[in-house]
Amino acid sequence: MTPLQPLAVLAAEQKSAEVTDWPNRIGWIVGLLLFIALVYWLMRQGWKWRGTLQGDLPPLPDAPSEQGPAKLELSGRYHGSTSAGQWLDRIVAHGLGTRSRVELTLTDAGLTAVRPGATDFFVPADALREARLDKGIAGKVLTEGGLLIVTWAHGDKLIDSGFRSDHAAEQAEWVTAINNMIDKNTTHVTNVTTEGTAR
Q: Nearest 5°: CA angle at 104, between 99 and 106?
């Protein structure tokens, strides 16, 4: 065998690379894109259907022009609202289902949530029911105590709204302040009712 023969044998054994089956590959890609579009469309339809089911929720109250000085202010994220006590029953009516940045302000008038790129909302002081720290709302789960949950009444429904401060340590102060405001309002209403009955 001459020195050139092994090279000839190797050259004969090498096979050209298989030609890519482009029509088949393109078909798979188009099919995958159509499937993703279908899933997205179904999610949008589900969102709209949930909004329709919640059509009996009255319009959100407007914030008063004069709210008094701010007791507390917070910058962070709004993670959504649910039916009170049911952290997966998301409320989407009136834009409450849209996650966003938020600037929260607590005054004697109530709680104002200013949301860039989403609908702002206002919770009157007499509609506040409870504030607590929790770990999850509307499918969002954080560490224990990572969320500020504010429970408020709207129409005949109790709503939990979840917020996450950029500085999580200040959330405990919010819980104390909101619950103190609720206790104060409850005591005031009770006293007024008692005085009215006595007369």
A: 145
Dist. CA 125–CA 121, nearest whole Å: 13
- Alpha-carbon span 146 to 133, nearest angstrom: 7
Q: First-to-last CA distance in the chain?
A: 125
The answer to whether residues 107 and 64 touch, using CB atoms and an 8 Å cutoff, is no
Q: Which amino acid is at 189?
A: V
Nearest to 161 by CA among 137, 192, 188, 187: 137
Residue 104 · residue 171 · CB < 8 Å = no
Answering whether pTM is above 0.85, one says: no
Which tens digits make up the pLDDT trace of 159-169?
999 999 999 89
Q: What single-letter DSSP state applies at residue 26?
A: H
> Cα(117)–Cα(104) distance, rounded to whole angstroms?
15
d(CA 167, CA 187): 32
Contacts of 135 (CB under 8 A, 6+ apart): 141, 142, 143, 144, 145, 146, 147
Q: What is the pLDDT of residues 110-151, one digit of tens each?
A: 999 999 989 999 999 999 999 999 998 877 788 888 999 999
What was the pLDDT predicted at 48? 60
pLDDT, mean of residues 79-102: 89
